[in-house]
Specification:
The protein has 483 residues and is of the alpha/beta class. Helices cover 44% and strands 12% of the residues.
C-alpha cells in the first residue's frame, strides 16, 4: 500500500512540529510550509492525501488560498485550523469546500478522529462510485445495467481491452449482449470519436459478403453500377464489429485473415490494395474451437481473432442483474414509445428473476416491450408476460427440458453411474437444440427462413445445424424416430 502524504501549512513552528510528529507516528509522509504562498506552491507541485491549513497567517492565510488549494488537490482531505474568534471564517471555508475545521488548541486524539472520519467518508464515496459504475456502466453512450460478479469481471475486461488496438473476440449465447460489449470497448477506447461499423456476417449472402467487407469497383460484377468502399474502409480509424464471425464462408475467411495481417484490403475488381487502420472486434455464439476441429473454421484465423477474449455469461447465470436490466429496458421502451409506466412491482421482478430467459437479454427486452404495449394502465402486471401463461402471481420457471431418455441417457446398468443418468450438459444441450430445430421446422412446414427466425439463428447457421444433426427440413420427425 502506498504511503499516505500530508501537507501542514502554518506560520507557527511549534504547531508544525507537533502536527508532524503526530502524523508521522500514524505512518504519514509529511511536508510543511510556513505561509500560504509556499504551501500553495507545494500543493501545486506534489500530491497529498491530507492538507492541514491555518486560517490566519501573515500575507496570505488559508482562507485566501483555499480555492486554489482545492483546485490543486481535488482528491485530498483539506482541514482548516482556526483559533478562537476565527470560527466564522472556518465555517465559511467548509462551505467553500474544505472537509472540516479544527479549533485551536486541539488534541492529537481530536486530529486523528477527524482524519478517521475523513477516511471513512472517502471510503464510502469510493464505494458509492464503484457501485454506480457497476449498476450502470457507461462507455461512449453505452449503458450496461448489471451488479453481478460475473458482469463486473466483464466490465474489467472491457476496460482493459479498450486501452489497446488488439483484436477482441466476444463469445456468448445469442441475445446475451455481445454487441453491447463491443460498443463499450469502442466507446472507452481512444477511437471513440471515430466510426463504429457493425456487420452481421450471417445475414449477408455468400455472393455479397466479400463486396460488403472489402468493397468493389464499378463494373466488378453484374449490378455493380457504382463503386463501394466496403466496411473495412468505412471503419478506417475506428472499429469494425464482425458479428456471427463463425458464419463466414471459408473463401472469405482467407481474405479476412490477409486483411488483418497486412492491414490492407483489395476491393473486388480493383488492381491495387488500400491501407486500413481498423480495430477488429469479432463475436460469435458458436463454438469456434469445435469448428476448427471439424475443419469448418480456419485455425490461423481463429488464433488471429482470439487474442483477447471476453465471454458474456447468459442471463440465467446472472439472475441478480435481471431487476436492474428490466427497469432500464422498460424505461427505454416507455421513453421511445411515449407511454407512461410505473416501476415494476416486486411480484413481477421476482418472476422475471426466476425465469431462465433462453433468449437472454434480447428476450427480456422483447417481453418488456410487449407487456408495455399490452398494458391498459401504467402498471405492468405478471399476466402480460408470455412465460407466465396468464397465471398472474405465479412463479415463473425455466422451460422444461426433454426427458432424460430423450437426451441419450445411458443404460441404468452403467457401473460408472449408479443412478443411470447422463448429466452431460453438452449432450443435453445438443439434444435440446436438435429437438427445437425439428419443432421449428414442423411449425413452419419446412420453411427454413421462417424456422431460422423462430430459432433466432441466421439462415446459414441453421443450414450448418441441419447438416450437423442430419435433419431433413421437409421431414424433421421421420417415421420410427423417437418424436
Amino acid at each position: 500500500m502506498a504511503t499516505r502524504r500530508a501537507l501542514i501549512i502554518d506560520d507557527e513552528a511549534g504547531v508544525r512540529s507537533s502536527l508532524q510528529l503526530i502524523l508521522e507516528d500514524e505512518g504519514y509522509e509529511v511536508a510543511t510550509a510556513a505561509d500560504g504562498d509556499v504551501g500553495l506552491r507545494t500543493a501545486q507541485s506534489e500530491r497529498f492525501d491530507v492538507v492541514l491549513c491555518d486560517v490566519r497567517m501573515p500575507r496570505r492565510g488559508g482562507f485566501d488560498i483555499l480555492e486554489d488549494l482545492l483546485r490543486a488537490q481535488p482528491e485530498a482531505t483539506v482541514l482548516v485550523m482556526s483559533a478562537f474568534g476565527q470560527v466564522e471564517q472556518a465555517l465559511e471555508a467548509v462551505r467553500k469546500g474544505a472537509y472540516d475545521f479544527l479549533a485551536k488548541p486541539f488534541t492529537a486524539q481530536e486530529l486523528l478522529l477527524a482524519l478517521r472520519k475523513a477516511d471513512e467518508r472517502e471510503r464510502l464515496r469510493s464505494e458509492n462510485r464503484r457501485l454506480k459504475r457497476a449498476l450502470s456502466h457507461e462507455a461512449g453512450g453505452v449503458s450496461i445495467a448489471a451488479s453481478s460478479a460475473a458482469m463486473r469481471e466483464v466490465f474489467e475486461l472491457v476496460e482493459r481491452a479498450a486501452e489497446y488496438k488488439t483484436t477482441v473476440l466476444v463469445t456468448g449465447e445469442s441475445g446475451a449482449g455481445k454487441e453491447v460489449v463491443a460498443r463499450a470497448v469502442h466507446g472507452l477506447s481512444d477511437r471513440a470519436s471515430e466510426p463504429y461499423v457493425a456487420v452481421n456476417c450471417g445475414a449477408i449472402s455468400e455472393s455479397l459478403i466479400e463486396s460488403e467487407l472489402f468493397g468493389h469497383v464499378r463494373g466488378a460484377f453484374t449490378g455493380a453500377e457504382t463503386e463501394s468502399r466496403g466496411m473495412f474502409r468505412e471503419a478506417d480509424g475506428g472499429t469494425l464489429f464482425l458479428d456471427e464471425i463463425g458464419e463466414l464462408p471459408p473463401a472469405i475467411q482467407v481474405k479476412l485473415l490477409r486483411a488483418l495481417q497486412e492491414e490492407e484490403v483489395r476491393p473486388v475488381g480493383a488492381p491495387k490494395t488500400f491501407p486500413v487502420d481498423v480495430r477488429i472486434i469479432a463475436a460469435t455464439a458458436r463454438d469456434l474451437e469445435q469448428m476448427v476441429a471439424a475443419n469448418q473454421f480456419r485455425a490461423d484465423l481463429y488464433y488471429r481473432l482470439n487474442v483477447f477474449r471476453i465471454h458474456v455469461p447468459p442471463l440465467r447465470e446472472r439472475r441478480e442483474d435481471v431487476p436492474l436490466l428490466a427497469d432500464q429496458l422498460l424505461a427505454e421502451h416507455a421513453r421511445r414509445i411515449g407511454k407512461a409506466v410505473e416501476p415494476l412491482g416486486r411480484d413481477v421482478l421476482d418472476a422475471l428473476s426466476s425465469y431462465a430467459w433462453p433468449g437472454n437479454v434480447r428476450e427480456l427486452s422483447n417481453s418488456l416491450e410487449r407487456a408495455l404495449i399490452l398494458a391498459r394502465s401504467p402498471r405492468i402486471t405478471l399476466d402480460l408476460f408470455p412465460f407466465a401463461a396468464g397465471a398472474a402471481g405465479t412463479k415463473a420457471v425455466a422451460p422444461e427440458l426433454p426427458a432424460a431418455d430423450s437426451l441419450g441417457a445411458p443404460d441404468s446398468s452403467d457401473a460408472s453411474d449408479s443412478a443411470g443418468e447422463d448429466l452431460s450438459i453438452k449432450r443435453a444441450g445438443r439434444a435440446l437444440e436438435d429437438r427445437l430445430i425439428r419443432l421449428a421446422l414442423v411449425r413452419t412446414r419446412g420453411n427454413r427462413t421462417r424456422a431460422a427466425r423462430l430459432l433466432e439463428l441466421s439462415p446459414r447457421a441453421l443450414q450448418y445445424k441441419l447438416k450437423e444433426y442430419a435433419i431433413d427440413p421437409l421431414n424433421p420427425f421421420p417415421a420410427g424416430s423417437d418424436s
